[in-house]
Amino acid sequence: MRKERKTIVYDQELRVEAYRFEGMRHPFPNHFHEHYVIGLVEGGQRVLSCKNKEYTIEKGGMILFNPGDNHACAQSDGGRFDYRGLNIGKEVMLDFAEEVSGQRRLPVFRENVVWDDEAACCLRLLHEMVMQEIDDWGKEEAMLIFLSMLFQNYGQAFEDHIPECREEIENACAYMEHHFAERLSLAQICHAIGLSKSTLLRAFTKTKGITPYRYLEAIRINEAKKLLCQGVPPADAAVQTGFTDQSHFTNYFSSFTGLTPGGYREIFVSANKVDRKRNEEE
Taking the complete model, does pTM exceed 0.70, yes or no? Predict the structure, then answer.
């Protein structure tokens, strides 16, 4: 029988708590939290009671609790429950809300249970970055994009207009292309071009079709490929192109190219050996 497993990680940078419950069976009595709870059901089925309404929650269902929302839940299928979630304090949420909407006021989620595949995918990606203790600004970007989506779809009124900011976006691209080997932050880029984080993320994604962090990673991967072609060892290529560690570099390189950095390098090292041998024979 599968054992119950609980994992909790506090992210110092984002100031949020991420937790993962696997194989859970025990019920939760009626209670409430003083913080926001954003969760995703990964498996099993439960009956959730929240603010005098009853829901059946199962895989793919997202839970949005405001501070003070009373709720209780119990297993309904005789099995076990798998769940991941984030706890966000009110002061921290105020900071996020100001970044996203420009207004320093606490959001109120209109719905407590939603079914949204795109939002669920974003939450899962963000949650994994926190659980794996990823240390770069892609995590902050993922958080702001995710909350922006929730505020717009399930929270207070949200400004739907996305500014063009084409000159600022091109300046952001140039800044990343010049500083890709450095330890960049979203705040640095915003300061350099004179945009807020939220405006940069929205305008950049609209203009370029990808987020700023993905754009930076593409620059770094392309530069790393040039180094690997020259025979530079993967560990050195990672350092020279701004990746935080070898594992981070390998994961991104593989996702972009389908090959490990070592495998990619070996193709060109082998080709160069053949060329040298051919030249020697001639």
Answer: yes
